[in-house]
Design goal:
The chain is of the alpha/beta class and 474 residues long. It has two domains: 2-118, no CATH class; 182-330 and 368-472, LCP protein (Aminopeptidase), CATH 3.40.630. Helices cover 46% and strands 15% of the residues. The chain has 16 helices and 14 strands. The strands form four sheets. Strands 1-11-8-3-4-5-12 form a seven-stranded mixed sheet, with helices on both faces. Strands 2-13-14 form a three-stranded mixed sheet, with no helix packed on it. A two-stranded antiparallel sheet has the order 6-7. A hairpin with a 4-residue loop joins strand 4 (252-261) and strand 5. Helix 9 crosses helix 11. The chain is elongated, with a radius of gyration of 52 Å.
Length: 474
């Protein structure tokens, strides 16, 4: 024992002092230090110590596990049990430690190293982290925080810059739109004085050969509610077949309800033929276009609402003598012509697709003699469709140039804020498809000659329902 203590005691004390808690926590696996000293001392002179453990024989009886104060696995008998089994584990651990030993590790005696390798390693507390890793993580966190602050500042600067640009752009657009809308001739329908309540017209010839009647009646649509929708705006386009200086008492030659339908994302045009025989509020049965002569745009709108039961939100009026300037300001329009139409239009027009100037377009829109008023209103809708398509293709500079020409020629009651909002939405609205409708439909009227004029008699209540369905789709 003294020899063992002199040779190995110092090394084992160092090992045991490094792992005192392991012996307290796991007493059944490893014997106390005193038993290990005795155990190793007894084997100090064993000459088969370095032989493989499976070839050794135990030279001494194995003490009882409990009597020797050793754990049960150490006290097992047999060739692989007892001390040999325990030491077998120590040698295995020693062989592993030789391969895993760092190059600069301090030297130990073989037996001390074996015993140390067999001892369990005390598990580190779960909540304890290496200081170096903690410092690294702390540094990374601080770095990330710093980078995050810089990123937030950069993002904030970008957002502020974008908002400033949007504000400046929006201000410029709105100012420009207000500038151009200021050029419009704004006139409320109630203030329109271009009418003559006592206007009279020369009798027409019964060119169509209609049946003559003296007292033609008109059915009333009073039982049908007036329909409107906040997502559908109806603008009445009125064309006057007279010079602007002679508006007073002039009949409306063109009446198209232009519906901007944001609900169904469509642009719709409903033509109302001028010869429709209707009830004029406050007066009597007469042709639709006579209402403008008797009471201006206000009476015309009230007549349309009374008979066709759709709400007219705004109006825009244009004289045909200025229509030529409007088309020329857009650079002309593309129109498909028949051979007869091309002959009347003249100036090099031909059958097929033609690019017409303002004068040619005006002539085309007023053609009636070669067919009927149905075809004439169809030509007018073609012109409107071509104008809209031409505006869609125009760049901003061309549009501004056109507006300089067009707006002073137009009279309207559309408020500036409504105009501005729709100009801003132009990139979206220009993608809306265009739908067309006309009243009366060709199979839903009958022509009569009454009181010196040719008229188209229709079922007014049914026509009102049809117009409502086309515009509102319900």
């Amino acid at each position: 024992m003294s020899e063992f203590n002199e040779n190995y005691g110092e090394d084992l004390d160092e090992v045991f002092l490094q792992r005192p808690r392991a012996y307290q926590e796991l007493p059944k696996r490893i014997p106390p230090p005193s038993d290990v000293n005795n155990f190793i001392g007894e084997l100090d002179g064993f000459d088969e110590f370095n032989k493989p453990m499976h070839s050794r024989k135990s030279s001494k009886p194995v003490p009882e596990a409990q009597g020797a104060g050793m754990p049960p696995e150490v006290g097992q008998g047999g060739e692989q049990g007892g001390y040999d089994g325990f030491y077998d584990e120590m040698l295995k651990s020693r062989r592993k430690s030789k391969h895993n030993k760092p190059a600069n590790a301090p030297k130990q005696s073989k037996r001390a190293a074996s015993a140390a390798a067999a001892l369990p390693t005390e598990p580190a507390p779960q909540n304890q982290k290496p200081a170096s890793n903690h410092r690294k993580r702390s540094g990374n966190v601080e770095l990330r925080k710093s980078e995050g602050k810089k990123g937030k500042k950069a993002a904030k600067a970008i957002v502020i810059t974008l908002l400033a640009l949007i504000f400046l752009l929006g201000t410029t657009v709105i100012s420009t739109v207000f500038y151009f809308t200021g050029m419009l001739n704004h006139q409320s329908r109630a203030d329109d004085t271009n009418y003559d309540a006592n206007a009279s017209f020369d009798p027409e010839e019964n060119a169509e050969g209609y049946e003559e009647v003296d007292n033609l009646q008109v059915l009333s649509a009073d039982g049908i509610p007036l329909k409107s929708d906040k997502d559908i705006i109806n603008v009445l386009l009125v064309g006057i077949d007279a010079p602007k200086s002679q508006n007073k008492g002039s009949r409306s030659d063109t009446m198209i309800i232009l519906s901007l339908d944001k609900k169904h994302k469509k642009i719709k045009m409903t033509s109302l033929l001028r010869d429709l025989y209707v009830m004029i509020p406050g007066r009597y049965e007469d042709r639709l276009n006579h209402s403008h002569a008797y009471g201006g745009v206000d009476l015309l709108i009230r007549t349309i609402e009374y008979n066709f039961r759709v709400k007219i939100d705004y109006y825009t009026r244009l004289n045909f003598d200025t229509f030529e300037e409007v088309v020329d300001s857009l650079g002309g329009v593309d129109i498909m012509l028949t051979a007869n139409e091309a002959h009347i239009v003249g100036e090099g027009a031909h059958e097929g697709m033609n690019h017409l100037n303002g004068a040619q377009t005006e002539t085309y829109a007023r053609i009636r003699k070669i067919d009927s008023d149905f075809n004439r209103t169809g030509r007018q809708r073609k012109v409107m469709t071509s104008i809209i398509n031409q505006m869609k293709k125009s760049d901003v500079q061309s549009l501004f140039s056109s507006m300089n020409t067009i707006l002073p020629l137009v009279t309207t009651d559309i408020p500036q804020d409504v105009l501005v909002s729709h100009v801003v939405q132009a990139p979206v609205l220009k993608n809306y498809p265009i739908s067309e409708y006309y009243v009366p439909q060709k199979d839903k009227y009958k022509g009569y000659y009454t009181r010196g004029m040719s008229v188209l008699s229709i079922d007014i209540p049914q026509a009102a329902k049809d117009v409502q369905y086309f515009i509102y789709e319900e």
